[in-house]
Amino acid sequence: MIDHLEVVDRSGVRTSFRKAPAVPDEPGVRYARVRHDYELYGVSRPEIIGAPERTGGLPETVKCGDFVPLDKGWQFYWYYLLKKAAPPDMLEGDVINLFGNITRRNAFKTNQHACENGYANYVTGCNTGAKPIRTEVIVTGGAYLKILDYPNVHSSRGVPSYLFATLNINSPPPDPADWDGVWQTPFIYFATTSRREELSDGTRLVIPLLGGFNIPVPNVSAADYALISTDRIEILPAGAEPPRPYNP
User: Fold this and answer.
1) Which of 34, 156, 180, 230 lies at a C-alpha separation of 20 to 30 Å from 62?
2) Residue 26: CB partners within 8 Å, gap ≥ 6?
3) Which of 23, 18, 19 is nearest to 246 (CA)?
4) Residue-wise pLDDT tens digits, 4-55
């Protein structure tokens, strides 16, 4: 595994990447799984928000922090991960369209901070003179997390919370060539196979993204950690780790 990689995009901009973080054996660390809505409430997301049972659910997401910018390096890092995850016969233009799809106006990560809202998407070439698209610090039900400073409980806006490890957008992104590191660190990346969207008339759609292939989504924040409510996760037994490789 190499320590770093430099990539030059079509416009001649050079971006440096570092390898994905290793999995240290350190005190105060436990692993956890994000509970699904049905585990917590006995119902799925549509019932929680008062929608009829026949409608498709909105994303089962858990917000863990405010929006952070994805600069050019981080956007291309996620794009390179999509290229690695895509079927081998998928054209580059289709991968670029896929990146635009999962970072569009009301997608679960960008959520009104996308190209369509006036932000720069460098991968698709949209609004490149503007500020970069922004992503929420967010995870989904079923994702695994690396809990830090366990068993200490912290407060997030008055809510008892645990610290969990993230990638820091103020540092260079990891090395996209370290593909094994992505699926070997499932507490830093989670996977999704579809995007759910609510239309203006209230209709909810479930849109497949890669025909069932897993799309890696990096957990990022403005630090090396974020906070999640203690009641939203299940702490794994001492010594237990997430499955590796992770294939949800």
Assistant:
1) 180
2) none
3) 23
4) 444 444 455 555 544 444 444 567 899 999 998 878 877 666 666 666 554 5
> Does residue 187 contact residue 242 with C-beta atoms inside 8 Å?
yes
Those residues with Cβ within 8 angstroms of residue 99's Cβ, 6 or more apart along the chain or in another chain? 75, 78, 79, 82, 121, 123, 124
Angstrom distance (rounded) from CA 121 to CA 157: 31
- On the 0-12 / 13-18 / 19+ scale of CB atoms within 10 A, 166 is buried
List C-alpha distances in Å: 121 to 14, 72, 105.
Answer: 17, 8, 11
H helices present in 10-139, as ranges: 37-41, 45-48, 72-85, 92-102
| Contact in structure between 136 and 114 (CB atoms under 8 Å) | no
Structure tokens at 149: 């400073």
Per-residue pLDDT of 175-213, as tens digits, reads 888 877 776 787 888 766 555 555 566 655 555 555 656
Interacting residues of 88 by C-beta distance below 8 A, sequence separation 6+: none
Dihedral sign computed on CA atoms, order 101, 33, 228, 27: negative
> Whole-angstrom Cα distance, residue 212 to residue 210?
5
- 56: which 2 tokens? 């498709």
Q: Beta-strand (E) ranges in the chain?
A: 4-8, 14-18, 30-34, 61-69, 134-140, 144-148, 154-156, 159-165, 167-168, 189-192, 194-198, 204-208, 215-218, 220-221, 225-229, 233-235
Tell me the pTM: 0.80
CA distance 7 to 12: 9
